[in-house]
């Protein structure tokens, strides 16, 4: 009989076979892996692979696949290679299905028409769920089951029928019952943000893979937090539905038939919209017709007709959350209040969560862990520390008699009933019960390895069978989140957790929060359609930029579109625009932009099923129908084809604005003309031309304007030693004085806006002190002047209800540098030592700057400007965030980066080489 190590070796060899088929081979992986793995793709993957795996949300990728704008095989190969790199970085894979995935992709590409709602989408899966087919080896991390065939998975059969591509299977821990992922077969899976911290469990392989963006949609399983914990630790989204919504038929596990407490599959994703997409598709096949244990209930949108009531669980009465988790709760609770929701406290102490754990830990192992321990013993497999913790160190776990089991299940049901009564009691004072509970998904960020010993923040909702979702909020900031040295722990578990916290150890780690709803109200609480559900509010209404914290440290944050709002019934009337207002916080114009076309574009397949709708005005306790109003209007200067202005005009249109693009030569505005926009001829350098444009806009709008975006501008790159003074005068005329000219002309129209007028000046991140790129001093000075003008306008016009905004744009791929001849150094320039590098930078090819394309930049800016109250400072584009930091830190802090951007690093190196080279005698 083979020893357990020999059996494990066979499994590892099988995994290596799949990894060995990766083509082309992974090159450029450092011998010593960095603590944070997020930079690895840039040195190993191709630019195209990075684009495919990072650019799209799930719905966006499905859209381009259906349109055949990209081949399924190309997408599949990109995700296979990124998953293989994720394996190197985190040890997250059980199997890389190279041959099967490529074959499947080629088949899908060969079809005359796209097939299924998931056509071509790569989906990753947790190993113990099994796979499509009848003879798939599934061991569920038990050595004894290695090489044992298992049946097909019903859920995966349905997803496969919808056209997806299964390409990897991911790791899970021994017994599938850890909040860590470690087994005797594959070892430990680590966090892609910090190798010293856990990726979570039990779906830790999925969490690490998605956190590394080696997948954008995966399937995990949850019985105690197994999709929510790893999602929280890796800064992604996940949803645990109520039991018996999604089938587990075909999954492999111990104690088959146990119904004391059960597991449910759940989606894990990089964006919130795809959570609902997954649920809709998973239930669209009516799986209850094959698996009779399921609730016969399709995914049905929930209509919400009043302001949301959110209860905040600050702690569970057992373990106090770490400071960054508490900070996140405070920030999100405040954002809820600002969005018009009622926020109350959820007092857990009378509900005795500790008693809940005593019941639940016994429910997990009604045989005292006998089957699991015997299975490991039979294979000679060692019992790992966290397995001992969850089975042998829990006082409530024992081999129950039948009567003891009945008694335990009665305690479970009594506890559930008591909790339900407490929830219902929240309506006593005003007739409105709490809609969702906002709470931590874990005491803090990802724990150090082998220290994930407190399950209460996720497992409690498994005991109650409440649907729950997690979503990213912020990251650990040692300055904002110092340890409270005066805190006195309440019990041993609290002390264990308190002692774990070290803000420097956790720096920049993701912090997620959790939303919990009542049993069977998955649609109402689910993490997907924030337009029609409670998650609508806490993930869309709440995610208004400027209203809650951003997560700049995360490698792949996605800008969350402003929400449609909880006060919108789940459909919209085509051809009409609607608005919503709250007496204290939600402005009238907030929903004007949500036409049916925009809803489709924003939410894709999740767009309400597009039915007719009424939108209601918030009145704190009730809603009243309101009259449709017109779109907000915006004039944008400098909109020639290929420019940032052109891209922004199209993006603002997509956000429901009536856009007036302008330019000196209308013949150069073909792109915006083709989109049906009303173009205005205007030379921002001519008083007469600007005055004529004002009259044109008056006729089109009836005399008002809601927003003016001064975008027209020009660049000039040259060392200050060689700057042409006349050119500099021209530069300031366009970049500075034209802003004054156009603003003065249009302010009379802005003062007549009924929506809260905006003046947005597209300045530049290079104009910030400490952020200037070498050889762009004159340009940066003009933009600094423009930024200063904007700041003055902000204060001067605020009393009149006009909001002046500085749009600090970083590097963006556009035609900006095409409007002038290539910049060249004078022949006698002292900088010619590094001529090639410096001229490359002067012409817009700054080394090391990752520039988004104009469309991506414009979508982000349009989202920012379409908020109820856009921020006064907006930073978008390559290195814009770094420029902002540079303006805050001591001068010279980021000189090394700035030198690289301008080619100064090359200059210094060449000068040093010249000095060290002996001169000929």
Automatic annotation (TrEMBL):
It holds the Pfam family adh_short. The keyword S-adenosyl-L-methionine does not apply. It catalyses: a monocarboxylic acid amide + H2O = a monocarboxylate + NH4(+). It is an enzyme of class 3 (hydrolase). One of its GO terms (molecular function) is amidase activity. Residues 74-523 form the Amidase domain. Keywords: Hydrolase, NADP. Its EC number is 3.5.1.4. It comes from the Eukaryota. Belongs to the amidase family. This is amidase. It comes from Fusarium redolens.
